[in-house]
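W.,

You were right to be curious about this one. When I first looked at the sequence I had no strong expectations either way, so I just let the prediction run and decided to look at it fresh. Below is the sequence, 362 residues in total, followed by the output.
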Amino acid sequence: MKKVFKLFLVISLTFMFNFSVFAKEIDHFKGEVNENAEIKDDIKGSTIVAGNNASMKGKADGVSFIIGNVTSFTGESEYLASAGNSVLVKGIINKDAFIAGNIIDIDKKADLKRDVIVAGADVTISGKIGRNISIYASNIKFDGALITGNVKLYATSIEIDKDTSIGGNLSYPKDANIDMNDDTVLGKVIKTDSISNEDEGFMNVLMGKFWSFMSLILVFAILSLVASKLFIRVQKEYDKFDLNRGLETFTKGLMFLIFVPIIIFVLFMMSIGIPLSLILLALYFIIMYLSTMFTGYLLGYKLWQRFFNKDINMLVIGIFGLAILFICSLIPGISFIVSALSTVVGIGIIYDVILKKIGSND
């Protein structure tokens, strides 16, 4: 009887385990923003995962955005955009991928079927790349990678093992330290100009944006704890937000951006006004810095209302909005527009929730 009971228990547990791993199928955009954010579902659309630890284990028919300190992608997606301090890619990307971070590992199980752009400090490539790959990094290591197309490298140290295969051409800076086997590259080996200020500048700008994004999240986290009323005011002030309200906020921000420097200049021309002008100048730059944070929070709040329609911690909302702004700032052609709009609109928000409240009872 005991044996029968044990057999029944094993079968029951097995059934429960198998049942629990079935992923849900979701027919819309899905976002998960948390300390430990994870998505296992099959998404009929795009998805965003953001948090200290962010992982995507499901399947997405659109773009998978993954942002955090430690990120991992082990699922399947049409496109991938991932940024973090430590980035692991171990899944299937049916089209293109953009990956940025400090330590990046494209695992041997990874299958990226089209073009890939990678920007990081230490990059390891062990998986399959279906077409071309461009890498901006300090140190690059290829460990058994299979690359069908061309490889463009911008790095100071490059290591390519004998098990790696490059079907197209390989190009790298002529002043880079490189260790490779002659039979690794089936196409041409092209030595480009030394790592110039242009190439290094691109990498510095990219990493600069990333660390600026992480710093902004840190400042936001502190503000959300010590001055949470500011963001509650944002929610109340912009509970109803349409095109006219957006233009009004933009106009306020633009007027502040233009006329405050003029006032500072006039005060600076008067000896008695120099101390005040210096104080205003400091406040002006502080407001400029915080503007993106407030724009990101409003964006996150309105999108969360629109797609999820449920209450959630303001820290999660802020990270969600700032992550969207960060990703948009990486897209060539619109990065300047995104930066300019987020600054001007953010200043308008700060005026509404802080400056015009000074002296009032609220």
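Here's what jumped out at me. The longest strand covers residues 59-73. And, maybe more interesting for your project: Confidence is low (pLDDT under 50) at residues 1-22.

Coffee later to discuss?

I.
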